[in-house]
Amino acid sequence: MKTDDLIHMVPEADLDAIVTRGAPVLSELDSRRILITGVSGFFGKWLLASLLHANRALGLRLRVTGVARGASVLLRTYPALAADGSLRLVDADVTTWTGPTEPLDDVLHLATPASATLNRDRPDEMLRIITEGTKNVLEHSRARGARRVLLASSGAVYGKLGPGVNSVAESYVGAPDPLDVGTSYHQGKRLAEHLGALAARDGSLELKVARCFAFAGPHLPTDVHFAFGNFLRDAIERQHVYVMGDGTAVRSYLYAADLVIWLLTVLVRGAPSRPYNVGSEHAVTIERLAARIAAHAGCGYTVARKPGSDPPDVYVPGTARARAELGLLEWTDLDACIASTLAFLRTRGSA
Q1: Which CATH number fits domain 3-217+253-281+317-331: 3.40.50.720, 3.40.190.10, 1.10.1140.10, 3.30.1390.10?
Q2: pLDDT tens, 82-95?
Q3: N or C terminus of the chain: which is more exposed, having fewer CB within 10 Å?
């Protein structure tokens, strides 16, 4: 596949930036056999395009197997993927997939339903998918000789932050309420980490844990529960951004190109069985995010209701560990992130 084909998935400038900034880590993946689950999702598309581009730009000899229930849709959307000899796409559910036949070196387990609706209406199914999918992938990883497994966990494992907590570090001892049926996603991610620890306890594989927070960039869904994506959709389709809540919730957003480097760095250089928060420390209220997106789009915004008396919901990581131990940075600021994502949606849509 030519680089020109890849930029239909990811902007060319981002592919080049990933290779330039991530070259030391990418070079350490030379000749590795990599499995990526959830390859048709937001994380998966970015990692797939980045690794295939790195193969060409850096002369790597990576072989990638991508697994997803939407792999066939990905091929129809980007048919040039079928011509890439370093890539094999498998259309399968990770909870029942019978596994690869070839040996593996590294595994990135990304597959998780990005659905607040599923978590609300069928919490038992959300929990089943996360835990059974993780257990299945870990078993296949061990059977095929993988040395390193990266789990894309979540900042949700910390539960709701207490009053006065403006960001959360990996040492935070809070947790989601186990009696709250609305926390199945949160509990599932905690169980996934525990399953990983059990699989790694004999030393046969290295468990790498990336606790992921909020992100933005091309391919971010614009029709689910992600405020960033929904605001961009409103700006494009309705010429007005609508905040459905009171706008006081606090979030932070790491750009997808930065995310790729962070995940690959945790895989290659992260300490085994030591979690790393992945995300931005630059906090913004949802109302302020709406205002900034509206300004970029040249439209207005509306907040549905006035703030109540409850403290704002905060979901912001502390990333001192990733910065100090792995040398990671946030290269793309929020305004550049908004501009890039907005331009992609306007020219190529959400795919």
Answers
A1: 3.40.50.720
A2: 889 999 999 999 99
A3: C
